[in-house]
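Justification of resources, computational component.

The compute hours requested in this renewal are based largely on the per-chain cost of generating structure records like the one below. Each record pairs the submitted sequence with a full structure-token output. That output is archived, and it is also reused by downstream analysis tasks.
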Amino acid sequence: MQFELERIGVHETVSSIFPPEKLVEYLADLPMEVTVIGDDEIAACDAVVTHEDREAFLDLHWIHSTQAGVDRFSFDTLEEHDVVLTNSTGIHDRTVGEMVAGYLLMFARRLHDHVANQQARRWDRPEWDEAFTLPGTTACVVGTGTLGEGVAETLGGLGVRVTGVHRSADPVPGFDDVFATNDLLEAIGDADFVILTVPLTDETHHLFDAEAFAAMRADAYFVNVARGSVVDEPALIDALEADDLAGAALDVFETEPLPEESPLWEMDEVIVSPHCAAYTRDYFRDVGDIVRENVSRLETGEDLMNRVV
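The structure output for this chain reads:
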């Protein structure tokens, strides 16, 4: 595919993850203008790098999403308007993997308790049998794509046995065992940690409901770094309040920001982070490398990297 690019806009919505000016500076060597834009300047561009969707993008040639997840875009509408969509799959594996490892280490070493105790100026050691180490535990990663592979690689280095859930039960590098999606309840039934890394689709919406939480062990921890709507949040809250789960680490929620009235804020064994598992000071460079590669591919007529539509 080929089309002329004279101006690439870096939409101001990327400011939620990095200063848009940083990406403009990083791409200053490209043979076209790259500039920060707002909604009123979209029409003056041929392509855009964005964190959110806008209807005005339908008049462009190319949209690049700073995220791997593209559930906020309408694929059918983009195809109707002949707009290309690429995403940032492949840049979040290590960052998300380390975030998940951090959650597990917090639970295992009771670090979240120590932080809470510090805020209250309370000298309170854990019970003798509360803390544990990660070697010998099992983590079931639901979703064996780039994010899942990053989680598996990081946790494997900590001595965790990692199983995966995929459409099929075919082996996936980095996973000790793989279950088919149809066997989800069996896969999560014997894991110390259950970790979600799947994209949000019609098939994965509320994939984790009351039945799924009931299938997990009462001493298991639940981690979601996928999308909030993959989880039936009221069902998760019910399971936590009933002590049917040991705890949860949640980076994504059905409503973001997480409403102040959510009981998740007050739960001792719940870690809340503000949808930032992929954040790193190199984020703009990682996105910029994909954009630069695709500009090169447009010039040679090659297939675009990470093309979704």
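The chain has a mean pLDDT of 97. The chain has nine helices and twelve strands.
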